[in-house]
Design a protein that fits this description.
The chain is about 5% helix and about 50% strand. It has about 130 residues and is mainly beta. The longest helix is centred in the N-terminal third of the chain and has 4 residues. The radius of gyration is 17 Å and the shape is elongated.
């Protein structure tokens, strides 16, 4: 669970972003017993925002196919249960004139988030 922001426009005169809570999974990139410290704290993060995003011009963005923006990125534990995530989010701009999936409205934007994590592991028997 966390809170993340998506950058829509990086122009200094017209900077625009949206932010919302998200939920997701973090899958470790390495085995903690055999890897260097940098990789021990890194993971692949996948998730979805719990609500649609809005830019400064009041345009609404949802996610293609699933109806919520979703992301993929790299996560890194900065404290025992706090994770910093950075990656890309898939967005689709909503408009009232169209229906169905329109590829010209789909975009990938950078995102950054901060999350609190609950550790859950599954082990397989011999």
């Amino acid at each position: 669970m966390g809170y993340g922001g998506v950058i829509f426009n990086t122009d200094p005169e017209n900077f625009s972003y949206g932010a919302a809570p998200y939920i997701g999974l973090s899958l470790p990139l390495s085995n903690r017993a055999y890897s260097p410290a940098l990789l021990r704290n890194a993971s692949l993060s996948l998730g979805a925002f719990t609500q649609n995003l809005e830019d400064s011009e009041k345009n609404t963005f949802t996610g293609p196919i699933f109806g919520r923006p979703y992301f993929i990125g790299i996560g890194y534990n900065i404290f025992r249960f706090i994770r910093l995530n950075a990656g890309a989010v898939a967005l689709e701009e909503l408009n009232n004139g169209g229906s169905g999936l329109q590829l010209d409205r789909i975009q990938l934007q950078p995102f950054v988030g901060l999350s609190a994590e609950i550790k859950f592991s599954v082990g397989l028997g011999r």
